[in-house]
Amino acid sequence: MARIDFFALGGLEEDGKNLYCLEIDQAIYILDAGLKYPTDELYGVDAILPDLSYLVHNRSRIKGLFLSHGHEDHIGAAPRLLKETGVPVYGTYFTLALLKDTMRDQGLDPEAYTMHTVKSTDTLRFKNVEVVFYQSTHSIPESVGMAFNTEDGALVYAPDYTFDQNVDPAYATSFERLSYIARHKVLATLTETLGAEQSGHSHTTQDLDYELNQAFMHAKKRVVISCFSTDIFRIQKAVDIALKHGRRIAILGRKAQRMVDIALKLGVLRIPEEKLVKLKFIDEKNKNTFEDGLVIVTGDRHEPFYMLQRMARKLDRLIHLDPSDHVVLMTPPVPGTEKIAARTLDILSRNDINLVQIDPAKLPAAHASSEDIKLLTNILRPEHIIPVVGEPRHFFALRKIAGSLGYGDERVHLLTNGQVFRFEDGEAKGVVRSVKSGDMLVDGILEGDVSDVVLKDREILSQDGLLLLIAHINSREKQTIGDPEVLSRGFVFMKENEALIEKVRDIYRNIASKNLGKGRIDWRGFKEKLREDVGRYLYKSTSRRPIVIPILIDVPK
Asked: Could you tell me the CATH number of the domain that includes residue 293?
């Protein structure tokens, strides 16, 4: 009989940062390792990763990282995890190709790590665990779910899926594999919940085909469509309809171009080579005005909106929009991009651009709705259900769905990150302990975590600005050289506040005379006193607290 612990380091009660773990008789199996994008209040933070310290500390017990698909909320933290633990990775060919590309972009050599390519028909066998993969329907090709078979039953990980029947076979759910898994006892399903509030089945609507066809029929010249770069399914649909209308295709977006190149090379995105157009920079001779073209503008989160703004303002190097263009928006705002999305609509409207906004309800759904969750549950008939990939409201919606299928609350377990839920000898024991979890804030290419102090400083900068005080000192002679230079950035207009600036200089002179009159100069104490006294004076005079940065330069006279 087995002891099975399930816990998450990210992905519970949040959208993104998915990283789940199964400890089966001490061996650790990691299910995905994703990132989350920051909200506006996290100034300058580029991504949020799960706290990996528990896995780093226990890396000798890790059997592998098992990836479900190639979206960044499921693989974005994998490069950092691999760098710190070096564990083997299991994923489909396309998913691993995307991971390798991301690793190279972050300066890692994928060849230095162990990566195993799996197919949706594969079964892997470990000491006392059998991992069964099955193909799932999602917006990106080669998505898989997986079942971890133990002697006490299977735990089925089902992230980001639908049961849409109107999809290409490359995206279709492998029901025969699900049936195979269901032949044996299913101890628990770990099912996604992001679409749990939606009634009915998630499926492709014919309305989207109609909207796209109408756009091409009414367009006199170019058609420009915005898509998120990871949504290969929607990109393929736009391409297919454009080809029916005799259009040539150009795809813009640095990261998207890399992803598209990978997808084309692997055959998961199909565009005839003769229909692909590589645009050159706009100059006096080249305007990139090919009238029979479809321009697909792609990127992550805010990038498609930002690119459209540049095109409308004629600042882009490849495309300048004009009133003869037809712009179709297939990028509904995601959390944190609402303002830039609204701003983009304003700019496009102000420039008299023909604009079609696709209703999000008409876009192909990427997450399981209530009926999809019911279908999965009825196929597998698990003894327990643990919701994953979602926020609290989604978890409660899933509990209601499960209740309609006869599952009492004692069989639906709503957890938070770090809580360890145990199954022992096939019985649910509940939460038995906690492991360390949390957020790791990543700023650009920095290795470390962005501290709370740095975030607070950025918040102050965004509200009250910055004041620099630059002074030159000859430490040997214990003399100041000239007057200090005072610079304001986002605080006050210098020419209108000369008296305030002069007072800052007076504070410097007073503190300098005291520090230079001693023996050895305490540079750190000198700066801290300047920061404190100048900051106190500025708040008293302006009721604002700019960041004060003293820069003391020791120079020979």
From this structure: 3.40.50.10710
